[in-house]
């Protein structure tokens, strides 16, 4: 728990307006919590995650939607799960109009959630997440999603431009926009990629990863179709790259907004075996 608090506190340096998280408890139930304010002032609330199997979290720097209205804060309910997103969706209004979406918040991040849900059951989590991201305007982003399905728990990790790191230790795998507080060997997740980690509920069954390569150019306002992503073993990094989690500048700064995301997958009682085959979409 001390490690999770350290990661959350580090993450809060780039998002002080609100925070929230979703998690899967030891019994397989999916839960969530969010509120306005800086998580550094509420670290005790993380005790509710003490026995979580999977977690996604978000520290928000508000750019669209008043954080005093909790409906604008992350995580967002998404097709029976929860999604957190870091970035600005510049074509949000266009997508709402052209794709006939019905947001209930003022936060542009909800558009990603609605695009995912509009895919229906056409493809798996990686496919739907990846094609949804492809429809967003050019610009850096990172996102995570959490679902508990009949086949096991799922954690989706997506990166397009924004920093996103992974730290592995024996007890689990941790993800964060900022790398400073991550444990173990820290790697940078491959860019323009969505990875989905599958956690089976029986100890001898494996976690598998799928991945999908996101387009690096502006999305066309076409009708929603499907797409598919592959596994991401990450790219090794040494030490700190310095600065923040969301930026194009050399110091990692972001002139628009600087929300940050974090995640954890508890490896206790499980083994990990990434799938190394690529899945193409055309």
Strand content: 25-35%
CATH fold type: Glutamine Phosphoribosylpyrophosphate, subunit 1, domain 1
CATH homologous superfamily assignment: Aminohydrolase, N-terminal nucleophile (Ntn) domain
User: How far from one another are the termini?
Assistant: 43 Å
Query: How would the global form be characterised?
Result: globular
- Strands, total number: 16
What's the tally of helices?
Answer: 4
Q: How big is the Rg?
A: 17 Å
Question: What fraction, in percent, of the residue positions are helical?
Answer: 10-25%
Name the strands of the widest sheet in spatial order: 2-1-3-15-9-8-10-14
Structural commentary:
- The protein is α+β, with helices and mostly antiparallel strands and 282 residues long.
- It is globular, with a radius of gyration of 17 Å.
- It has an eight-stranded antiparallel sheet with strand order 2-1-3-15-9-8-10-14, covered by helices on one side. Strands 4-5-6-7-11-13 form a six-stranded antiparallel sheet, covered by helices on one side. Strands 12-16 form a two-stranded parallel ribbon.
- It has a single domain (2-272), classed as Aminohydrolase, N-terminal nucleophile (Ntn) domain (Glutamine Phosphoribosylpyrophosphate, subunit 1, domain 1, 4-Layer Sandwich).
- It has helices at residues 2-11, 92-98, 110-118, 125-134, and strands at 18-24, 30-36, 54-60, 76-78, 81-87, 141-149, 152-160, 165-169, 172-176, 185-188, 193-199, 206-207, 209-213, 235-236, 260-266, 271-272.
- The longest helix is centred in the first third of the chain and has 10 residues, at 2-11.
- It starts with a helix and ends in a 10-residue tail after the last strand.
- The chain is 13% helix and 31% strand.
